[in-house]
Amino acid sequence: MFRTTKLYPCMAVVLAVICVIFLSNCGGGGNSSVVPNTNPTTENPVSYTNPTPTPILVTKPAEGYLLVTNSVTDEGDNVENLKVFDVPAFKVDTSGNQPFIQQVADTLKEDPQTWNSPQIQELYSALNASLSNSRPLPLYASSANLYSSYQDSENSEPIPVNADGSFNSQVLTEAGNSSTELEVVINEDTCLEAETVTSGDISSSCNDTTPGLKSSPSKIMVMPGEVVEVLIYSYPTTNLKNAGLTITLNDTSLGCISPQIFLCKGGKKDYTKAWVCFHAKKSLSTPISTTITVKTSDLQLEIPVEIVKAAASISGTVYTGGATLVKGFVKSFGPKSHCKLDENGNYTLQKVFKAHNVKVRATWWTTENGQKVRHREEKVIDFFNQDVTGFVFGVPPTPTPTWTPSVTPTPRPRYDEFYEEKIEEVICQYEKWEAELGKLQANQRTIQWLNGQVSDGPPIPDEISGAASIGNPYDIWVIFKDGRNECISTSDPIIMEEQGTDDPLLRKEEIKPFTHLTATSNNCTVKNADVIMLSPYYWQKSDRYLVELDIRKRLEQNNYDVKYINTDTSNVTDPERKDIDMDWSEAFWFGKYVGCYALNWDNIVTPKTFETIGKYGIIYINAHGGPVTIDETTFNPDNVPPESVFRLSCTILAKNRNSKELSPLDKWTDENSDKEFKHYSSSIDQNKGWWFYRNREITMGSGQALVRKWVKELALTNYYFDYLNAKSATNFEGSLVYWGGCCAWHMKNSFNTAKVYIGYDRFSQATWAYPFAYNFFWFMMYGPKDCPKDIIHGDGSLDIPHSPMPLATPSFDIDKPLHATEALNNALTDHYKVNPDPAYYERNTDDVDTNGCTAKIWQKDSNEHIYFPVPVTVTVHKK
Fold this sequence. Notes:
alpha+beta; six-stranded mixed beta sheet
């Protein structure tokens, strides 16, 4: 969606005249544009559309300290910000004014409780880091020149800036505005902008002067983890402290704000201006919006806040209406959002932050009658879907009065409930055919029906163009007319058991200390002792031998830093925890879906979670997996076709109770809508999609009380992990990765930056997979001596179903921790004979491999003996 545009050409030679004329005339104000062309004697005038009133310009005094800060995105791109302060940012100035950072600290320390809060400490730490690494403008770039946004940088003198970044000058600005926009020109490839408050009175004779609270900047755009400083003031000027000023962040889950800060300048506090610092939390899904509410006893201001990180491109052309283009550039906000025009006026802003109300400005010069004329046009766009092309400025060759820039047509947002309604309609028909024909034939009939090949079938749901099967006959890929697709999987229903039906542990053990857990040199352990455990389907848990429960507790008792996300849907096992509320009585549309509502997003695995796991030394993932493009009924783990696609089930698709509030999952899929996996596409790039929605059957109870419904899950393909694996900021360098999911072994190449990777080669049974992983980590932590045994048979076998009697003499020392390969191959495979799974795998076809699932290990350096890390540096002495 596009907003009103502003277009003003200007003649530099009449700049002084303009100021005089505008000072004596009032008109519409409130625009951020350059002085219009007021020369009526041009013999060959150029035609421009000017849809907004001419602003009234005056000169006003402005002063401050200019500095440049630098932030780095997750992609490694720099984002430079120009900031203006009333006092120096980090050093005392020649007048003895204390720097901004010191005055912030002094204010925060006035209330010890505020100062000691973790959120404020994190805010102050981020602010200190940002300002300490900043540089005054002349030190950042000696060639930098400062202008008002209304000045012509080609034909006027820049505003003087001192070595410490201070300036004090008259600036050209709108009469009805108390703030002005500054522009710093570094070179043709770099231009920075900032907003500051003028110290002159606002012209009361102008209709656009509105009393009230004001802020600079008027809108906050910030990246996760960043701090932004905001100035609050009022017109007419008033003592904000006496007026009862309060400042509130309306969504504290997104970050925190500091108390109001009144700066001391020239030995006196200025209560007419208040500063506040906002710190955005790290690892937020973006773009996400909130507001900061500023109130006095009789006034109120809402400052829009947008947290941004995802970026896309904007490209187009600046048209000159037939005049000769001299030079120009287009600028927005983002890591690569400045581009000079080529000789034809074309430009591409490679990375502009996706957000609401994004400003895109074009500035260009043409020649008219031997004179250089400056033009400036601004457009505002809601920009949060995909790349924008054909975004033009100036006058197109064949202008039309209603012309507006166009965005490439996009489908509905991926979170639109329209798709869920249509899929539910398909599921209703599938279930009827399943009861009549069985699963596989019902799948085939459903695909034929959606492709218009069933003459006596019901009407095909609107906006569905067809369906397909890609390798796995249990998957129905529903294709929508807008290009979206969605998978209905009928092979592996989720079975919900009532609480307390699992067999208890055969014996309970006290948490034992690591009396002999040691590690060798850094080359023989992982990069650190930090541990992360992800269990998005923890709510399906068995009570027996869970790494994410029992092993975690042992590590925590031994002073390990363990981050874990165990998503639960019941508070029976842990009264303090319930992360997703599953509403089985929900009956929207056809009543086929279980309502899944998030109660605690911090404990729900999202794709963003996987961007952070690479910083941990030990990574354990307990999540479903499987092939996407292979027939699971004939799957041969020893003969997997090249370019096969596999998936990891990230989580069931939980939503917010407030249907108007997008969830982190909806935001992520919307930001990455162009990365959706589309199996039927002929484009290789589209085939390498990161994610897709997968509908799975879910049952509760048994017999007459059996309830059968469906849930939607977000599945991530190996291409998403390829993406993470290829980036230094998100890869798994130096880590041990254990993914205990079906067919996880076949995604090992997506984790090949890790030091060690362990995964299962085919479909596994939970009764084996859970205790197997438990014993693997036990062996690395303690050694096999005291591991859980089958006390019923008493023959030394492990407490794993069908576990045979072990060999008489082990090839390893049972009293000492084992390294990774030793634990898996020597102990679990050779000695205890539980790898592969000793249970018989009966399947529903005669030609499928019935061998048990095998856990396999890959090491980057096969010669290394990689031990479990310890929080301190120690040395191992092996026999």
